[in-house]
Amino acid sequence: MSDSNDTRPHLVVIGNGMAGCRAVEEILARDTGRYRITIFGAEPRVNYNRIMLSPVLAGEKSFDEIIINDEAWYADNGIDLVAGDPVVAIDREKKCVMARSGRTMGYDKLLIGTGSDPFIIPVPGKDLPGVVTFRDLDDVDKMLAAAENGGDAVVIGGGLLGLEAAHGLSLRGMKVTVIHLMPTLMERQLDEAAGWLLKTALEGRGQTILTEANTQEIFGQGKVEGVRLKDGREIPADIVVMAVGIRPSTQLAKDAGLAVGRGIHVDDHMVTSDPDILAVGECVEHDGQVYGLVAPLWEMCRALADGLTTGPTGYKGSVTSTKLKVSGIDVFSAGDFSGGEGCEDIVLRDATRGVYKRVIVKEDRLVGAVLYGDTADGNWYFDLLKKGEDVSEIRDALIFGQAFASGGGASANPIDAVAALSADAEICGCNGVSKGQVMACIEGGAHTLDAVRSGCKASASCGSCTGLVENLLALAMGDDYAGERDNKPMCKCTSFTHEDVRAAILEKELKEIPAVMQALSWSTPDGCSSCRPALNYYLLCAWPGEHQEDPQSRFVNERMHANIQKDGTYSVVPRMWGGVTTPAELRAIADAAEKYDAKMVKVTGGQRLDLFGIKKEDLPAIWADLNAAGMVSGHAYGKALRTVKTCVGSEWCRFGTQDSTGLGIQMERMTWGSWMPHKFKIAVSGCPRNCAEATIKDFGVICVDSGYELHIGGNGGIHLRGTDLLCKVETEQQALDYCAAFIQLYREEARYLDRTAPWVERVGLDYVKQRIVEDEVGREALTARFHYAQSFLQKDPWAERAAGAESHLHQHIAEIRPFAVVGAA
Amino acid sequence: MYEAEWLDVGPVDQLPALGARTLPVQGGEEIAIFRTANGDVYALVNKCPHKQGPLSQGIVHDTTVTCPLHNWRISLLDGHALGEDEGCVPVIPVKIDGGRILIGRKEALGQAA
After folding, report:
1. Which of A69-83, A397-411, A419-433 shows the lowest mean pLDDT across its residues?
2. For residues A300 and B111, what is the distance between their CA atoms, to the nearest angstrom?
3. What CATH homologous superfamily does A319-408 map to?
């Protein structure tokens, strides 16, 4: 690819890592064709995201998933990649570099991005086979090979890198001991309290954590066998991971005679002591500072690219924050949290949620923050810290986070929270992308998460700001932003879909609404009127025997067991099995209608009688009267089995082929009382004339001479939909069993408030057939689960209320009559 | 005769958490008394500004009640409709004293007084 006729200045980059490649990306973004570019990499592979090696070790990602720039990128941009052949010398006189293979290459501008080397503590045995560092993919491969046989692992170093190695090895099945010299884990990022919480949590996951432990030697015959501490303790080990720290890789620069301190000295434009040589990333020292995080690195790359192309801007140093996940636990820290004179601590601990928050205020300015377990407000604190804003006005609420402090106790709507962020607030710490840049990217047409990631790099590295970016998409696009899944979140309180939530309820054995909200990090304290009824349903469906009803999460009709009307009165519908009644029942209904002053008595579409205008105080009494005549709740108010409508069938009708009335009654006896995602109607017609209109019901039976046609997914509502034929069966018992199985499938898999019609259309008739008709064992299991649930659900709610249950729902708390002072204070 | 500023309408434990009870006022508007998850108590006239739905029968979440008729969301703090909807329902001052619910006499009696 290199072209000797190419007269453009030649930029040679030493280091194919995150800094080197990012610098090249920034240069290309400013001026695509200015330089001919060659990149030397020590590793024999393309540029990948080193931060993501931990998920690779833990088995959460593959190497392909952490590649930043694939081979096509190098080709498309005309970049020569020399991978696996590290540069070993720089000749500044001749302006050329020499690689290990002997290859030399001239440069006009040279960029050093050699990063860091892992620090190896100089103890005996450090060179034994089985002692590895954690820096590149080869190290990960070595650890994976060791983990294949299980056994013991020792990780020396309880900083971020060490803990991630420990987590990964532990997940891979090894018994892990972490040896840490200091009293507190991650002492550079966490204070003592947060470090202790982290230690306890990791110990709870089976790791052994030894703090204040000093390594004396690594021992073994021919290969590592264990680690001996200064206090004499011996810890067996099949592999030892050395993760005590990193130091800037400066040897090459030092040998070339460049000015080097802790790192390679650079000015504000990332130029070294040689004007034609630049350096960027972890290997540099700027203004006395050396950085080991990615955010400063991105800022350096921008300054460098500006200097090489459009015009110098200058790098001013970075204030850093750390927001990361350690073994799945969120931790965040920023600024100075060592305390000291004039510093005031504000601390919040929530032991149950495993949350610890500490902010440090000095002279009315936020100077530091440590968050453990809940890092949602990290960016906000970091923003306050960087800006040095006066926080005295919000000091009281500061610890409760942004939503509380800036909204005066308003609800914690995450969209409002990102709306309140200033344009220069940092969204993506890894790539140094501000809210303003993300919004500009969205306005420029990036309407999906992936588009934003490739457009401005936000959330393209560690991914911890994905939620923030999604919220910004929602903020910019309003309802047009449907989320990243085809499937929308359940409601604004969560980013999880109905299916996610149902799966989690089963997997994590969540049995109460607050437990679901806690486990899935609901963004509101007690949900909303959309998610609470849905959760209540999902829980009762998942745990029929254990579910405790939450009346406050029921819509009014289900809470009151009657239908609320526009004037606040209720309508009452007693059950008439299969639409069949008796003179005695009719007499009782007539008496009740008169006694409780029903304003209207109406025959419903489902073959029932509806008494309108009943007051909520009278409900228990009218139910008691109807119960006394043998009638129970008709559930005309519920997301539940409503009615089984029938025609008269073979018993009376000259066309009838089967006893449709009798089957309908059996079906209603079997299905009444079952709560469902939405209302559910059944009909049984005695012949294909279909007088019971079975083909617009959720489940319809059409009797024929040779048996029963079973139809599903019909709806006579807004969108008229005829049923689909599920199958034909021969006996009444089969019709009942298939009906139970179908209902249970719908109960278990449809989203709350899905009628069967849209649900069947979504999953497809073939799927339902496969589950109900073809999979005989599965069908029997569904039928059995339905009957099990029914054993708990078939209780007449009217009888319970008539006997006094939940009486407060029907009574006023008191009454006020003017001039008669009630209970004067 | 001494006229109390506050009316005692009953013990606070008669209010279900995330629920409401009603308080009819002879010659005046019925009042709904709400209790939130963290135990705060609020009172509004029991009529949604939209179509007079009984707010006492709505679902309470955070400091909001969703009307049972058409899902308007009404703030318990100031009686205003939230979101796109516009309207407001009168708020009755409430305080809790010794486990008893006290409501503002003047506001509770409204035009009935």
Report:
1. A397-411
2. 70
3. FAD/NAD-linked reductase, C-terminal dimerisation domain (3.30.390.30)
Q: With an 8 Å Cβ cutoff, is B88 touching chain A?
A: no
So what's the pLDDT on residue A375? 83
* Superfamily (CATH) of domain B6-112: Rieske [2Fe-2S] iron-sulphur domain (2.102.10.10)
- Looking at domain A641-794, its CATH superfamily turns out to be Sulfite Reductase Hemoprotein, domain 1 (3.30.413.10)
Quick one: which of A726, A692, A722 has its CA closest to A709?
A726
Nearest to A524 among B3, B4, B62 (CB): B62
Per this entry, what is the length of chain A?
825
By the 8 A CB rule, do A259 and A247 touch? Answer: no
Distance CA A306, CA A784 (A): 70
Report residue B34 as tokens: 């709400």
pLDDT, tens digit (0-9, with 9 covering 90-100), for A366-379: 888 888 888 878 88
Interface touch A816/B4, C-beta < 8 Å: no
Query: Is the CB of A529 less than 8 angstroms away from the CB of B61?
Result: yes
> For A70-83, how does the pLDDT look when each residue is reduced to its tens digit (9 = 90+)?
888 999 999 999 99
Band the pLDDT of A407: cuts 50, 70, 90. Answer: low
Q: Concatenated DSSP letters for A423-462?
A: TT-EEETTTTEEHHHHHHHHHTT--SHHHHHHHH-TTSSS
Q: What is the SS3 assignment for A644?
A: strand
Q: In the CATH scheme, what is the code of domain A557-638?
A: 3.90.480.10
Which residues 534-563 of A are in CB contact (within 8 Å) with B?
551-553, 555-556, 559-560
Residues of A whose CB is below 8 A from B85: none
CA distance linking residue A729 with residue A732, whole number of Å: 8
B27 near B112, Cβ under 8 Å? Answer: yes
| Residues 6 or more apart whose Cβ sits within 8 Å of residue B68 | A555, A556, A564, B53, B54, B55, B57, B58, B59
Instruction: Give pLDDT, residue A561.
Output: 94
Q: What is the CATH number of domain A131-244?
A: 3.50.50.60
pLDDT bracket for residue A322 (50, 70, 90): confident
Q: What is the CATH number of domain A413-484?
A: 1.10.10.1100
Does the pTM surpass 0.80? The reply is no
**B15 contacts on A by Cβ (under 8 Å):** 813
Q: Is A411 helix (H, G, I), strand (E, B) or coil?
A: coil
The angle at the Cα of A186, spanning A180 to A191, to the nearest 5 degrees, equals 120
**pLDDT single digits (tens) A712-742:** 999 987 778 999 999 999 999 999 999 999 9
Of A237, A210, A204, give the one whose Cα is nearest residue A223: A237
Q: Which CATH number fits domain A10-116+248-308: 3.50.50.60, 3.30.360.10, 3.90.226.10, 3.30.565.10?
A: 3.50.50.60
